[in-house]
Design brief:
The structure is a homodimer. Chain A is α+β, with helices and mostly antiparallel strands. Among the domains of chain A are: about 130 residues, Butyryl-Coa Dehydrogenase, subunit A, domain 1 (Orthogonal Bundle), CATH 1.10.540; about 120 residues, Butyryl-CoA Dehydrogenase, subunit A, domain 2, CATH 2.40.110.20; about 160 residues. The longest helix of chain A has about 35 residues. Chains A and B meet through helix 1, helix 8, helix 9, helix 10 and helix 11 of A and helix 1, helix 8, helix 9, helix 10 and helix 11 of B.
Chain lengths: ~600, ~600
């Protein structure tokens, strides 16, 4: 049975020492997030994750969710109680606005907590996680009345929320949505249609479920310009605002999935259900994108989280299991064999996992800080700069973060050898759970197109230029210290590959957009390497300063420098290969007629 | 529900046109394998795979195997009947020696058939597949009496065979085996111990099961030098050679696994079971390696097979599913959306799959031919040359082939978006089944060490030098044709990276073997790229010649050239990155103390 300990030391290192949250104390919400409070919240969240959620991860996977004849859904044993504790501990309220009962803490802290919960039990963490997305959409687009009605309950996790986008005929292409919304005399709408793949669509964790639903009003324009957003509670509210009459929305089935079994993925049937328009008619997609952008960061964090959980269990097996001898001679001559830790190829996988998880953690938490700064920074210029980088990094965190998360989960399963393939050992669950993160909230190929087709070109490429400049500055500074110079040179080279790739895209994507499409995925990974490189430079710089300052936690900082070196040596060489692959363009990829793909 | 059509055209292309099996007609066994017979066997095997085995793939996964109270095991519905048909059609006898009832056909043909069976239903194909390995071991090391007793039945698939190596405390490190073999007065041995992860250890497909078991005789030396091989039938044979008394070997449990549910992976309890020594005492490991080397090629073919099956279903979904529009403007303006085939990123994944499956098929079938030539080539020199290359390529086919097989299965699941995560659509089964191939028969890290630590150095590096020379020759020849020159230049460059990496290993692996260990995995992938490059050069050359010759199957050869180009453009750039990664050496990988890996 796998175990999980929240990587609290590393999260505190990033938040307090690398991102230096104390520097922002004058901004709204940050005053309550001094280093000592951060430490306390991090430790408490870590404890909750490892003690309450982690023990339910394997059992939840094995039991799964059960739909009853009446359409109600039972979550696995222990989930309802655990969610009760989650709610009472206020974990859902952490970075929600104080106006609606939240604690108003910075997102950078909220993201760290999210990682722990997701690493301990991804299927569980999705229930409150999706609610956070729904809260964001109502905050941005809901009427004052809607906000007053739903947000306090949702922030408190008394009611949970969902996102209803997908239909059988439409996933990525939301322009194909068919669900209908008929206006009623009282100002409400009657929603009719079928939604599929609705995570947490039905369950027994809360008294009510608040669905946010994309649908078309009569005579709405075709395509994405005719989609509106509606709020549809499972139980309509009575005069006191409490759940009353059952609304005409039912779970028709639970999907059988590869993983995240403990999260109920539902077919939702809307049969004239009562809903209310959120925001403007036909502007639903814009509202949904607010939810989706936050959700995409959350999914990137899931990739990180599954990698972290798998890493820890890879380490514990490698340290216990004795098999073979060190190539340089027996390490433990009194034992019949050495531990797996002596084998360079096992350590390669463990070090790759460290380089990814620690780099990605820094990147995700930086993104959390950018969310905060995009709203709360003192000047318009700073807010815009944060928003630029956040927009650019969001598809990278989602796409690169989940691809690598799956790779690390697979590698850590590999460390276990045949025992990794056995269900009871839990390593294969990390792989199955991590797999969905590459698919949902926009498949990773869609993230790549979002990066290349939208984010890159926005405001004349301002965001990517800012990234280049930031990396360049960090490299130049780091080169002055011989302990950082090798890494700085490698990251600088990767940054150069990214600049060249960007130039190539500008020149060749315009003449034929398929060149951009064919290179987008490699470009996303290339950006991921550079973004992680920037994080490793910052972390290594922080570690060097701490060591020079005579820190008592020497082992931690020294390990950080070794892992930084590993990142430089083993992750950055890929950058050149990615660029050269892109530069092949789209010709061969687009050349074959459809029938040539069919075997015979 | 996924479907499978055997890629018979491509297999015939490789065997008849690229490897030119007709050129070997004078060698033993090849006379019966003229191009027209190859075509007939390939088509018939393809039909059997797609019509009999493929329909049982999903149902077998869902039902799994069932162990009864008495220790007997039921395979999923339809498996017994399908195996009956398999046996009656003689598929198990194809490349077995005529002396024991086999058809004595070349292995190159047998490998093609193996791919089809494994692609259609990997869990099913393992039952006869493992028997083939046991047959090889008995052929090599069994006494005449043992061969006469077991081989005719096993070749005919009337009895199936197993390999019993792993124990709870030992997987890779077979020196740790504890199972005991006590000599009995009648010359037999009493075998006692627990074996785990025994594929096809117990089932209801045949009247008897012949276990090959590694165990220690009393006073055997410690470690790998004290291991002997025994044959242990489930039912002891009566005077007529028919199954009689039940032997004291029982299935104690079936493992719950991530995939290959329809193959019974058993804990086998030997409780004084009667067995007979195969070959010499304490020389069991050498005998087992004969089985394992053949089995490793078979596992590489499983990687290819799962990739092929997944590819076909990726294509069919991409051609049916309509979502979004071509970047260059609507392709089907009368439909609400274009098919996924218009999206460059989807086609990138499909083309990657083609480049891998077609290249790997050529490599696996070439290896099949090398098996034949290593035994049957006319001169000692030719036999040695074939054996050299086969030994070198075996870990590459196993390690690179299964890594890429898993990647392709994952990519093809990705093409399906959210629908790929749903069990009923079958794409996730390909991923779960493909996953084991990276682990068993020596985890891929062990393959990498076999390549770098054993195969590379054998006979002063004769094998790798032969590969360099062969690739160099093929590149030089191809450069003369402008249709092949770009690919040739790219493969030549990759070959140069491999040569440089080999030189680096020689220089740095001797001074510190951990350098070899830390670089082995990258080296294995680098060799895989060069080996596939050689295959693509040969295939592209064959295609050019066919087109120049005015072939009527123009579309096939043109597609081959496009896919060859894609391989060159998208697979070879990785070579340089792999070399640079290796050249970082082992320092950072070996630097951290054990406790630094533990999170807190």
């Amino acid at each position: 049975m796998p175990s999980f300990v929240a990587p609290t030391r590393d999260a505190r290192f990033v938040i307090n020492e690398v991102l230096r949250i104390d520097d922002y104390a004058e901004l709204p919400g940050f005053a309550g997030a001094s280093a000592d409070i951060v430490d306390a919240v991090i430790e408490e969240a870590g404890k909750f994750a490892s003690e309450v959620l982690a023990p339910l991860n394997a059992s939840g996977d094995q039991e799964g969710c059960t739909r009853q004849q009446d359409g109600s859904v039972a979550t696995p044993a222990g989930f309802k109680e655990a969610h009760g504790q989650f709610r009472e501990s206020g974990w859902g309220t952490l970075s929600a606005p104080e106006e609606f009962g939240g604690q108003g803490m910075p997102h950078v802290l909220g993201f760290a907590v999210e990682e722990f919960m997701s690493a301990a039990n991804m299927a569980f963490a999705m229930y409150p996680g999706l609610t956070g997305g729904a809260v964001n959409a109502l905050l941005a687009k809901g009427s004052t009345d809607q906000q007053q009605t739903y947000l306090p309950k949702m922030v408190a996790n008394e009611w949970l929320g969902t996102m209803n986008l997908t239909e059988p005929q439409c996933g990525t292409d939301l322009g194909l949505i068919r669900t209908k919304a008929e206006p009623q005399a009282d100002g409400s709408f009657a929603i009719t249609g079928t939604k599929i793949f609705i995570s947490a669509g039905e369950h027994d964790l809360t008294d009510n479920i608040i669905h946010l639903v994309l649908a078309r009003t009569p005579d709405a324009p075709e395509g994405t310009k005719g989609i509106s957003l509606f709020v549809v509670p499972k139980f309509l509210l009575d005069a006191d605002g409490n759940p009353g009459e059952r609304n005409a929305v039912m779970c028709g089935a639970i999907e059988h999935k590869m993983g995240i079994h403990a999260n109920a993925t539902c077919v939702m049937n809307y049969d004239g259900a009562t809903g209310w328009l959120v925001g403007e008619e036909n502007k639903g997609l814009a509202a949904m994108f607010i939810m989706m952008n936050a959700a995409r960061l959350g999914v990137g964090i899931q990739g990180l989280a599954q990698a972290e959980a798998a890493y820890q269990n890879g380490v514990s097996y490698a340290q216990e299991r004795r098999q073979g001898r060190a190539l340089t001679g027996p390490e433990d001559p009194n034992e019949k064999a050495d531990t797996l830790m002596v084998h360079p190829d096992v350590r390669r996988m463990l070090m790759d996992s460290r380089a990814f998880t620690e780099g990605m953690r820094a990147l995700a938490l930086w993104a959390g800080l950018l969310v905060d700064l995009s709203h709360k920074a003192a000047t318009e210029e700073d807010r815009t700069a944060a928003d630029d980088l956040l927009g650019l990094l969001t598809p990278v965190i989602k796409g690169y973060g989940t691809d690598l998360g799956y790779k690390v989960a697979t590698d850590m399963q590999q460390v276990w050898g045949g025992h990794g393939y056995i269900v009871e050992n839990g390593m294969e669950q990390f792989v199955r759970d991590a797999r969905i993160a590459m698919i949902y909230e926009g498949a990773n190929g869609v993230q790549a197109m979002d990066l290349v087709g939208r984010k890159l070109a926005m405001n004349g490429g301002r965001a990517i230029q800012a990234l280049f400049a930031e990396v360049g500055k960090e490299c130049a500074a780091a080169k002055a210290d011989e302990r950082l110079a090798d890494l700085a040179g490698r990251v600088e080279k990767a940054n150069g590959e990214l600049q060249a790739a960007t130039m190539w895209l500008m020149q060749n994507g315009l003449s034929n957009p398929n060149n951009a499409g064919a290179g987008a995925y490699d470009y996303m990974h290339l950006t991921g390497i550079v973004a992680l490189g920037l994080m490793w430079l910052r972390m290594a710089g922080t570690a060097v300063a701490a060591l020079d300052g005579g820190s008592s936690d020497k082992a931690f900082y020294e390990a950080k420098l070794v892992t930084a070196r590993h990142f430089g040596e083993r992750f950055t060489p890929e950058a050149g290969a990615l660029r050269r692959r892109m530069e092949a363009g789209c010709e061969a990829i687009m050349a074959l007629p459809d029938e040539a793909f069919v075997r015979g």
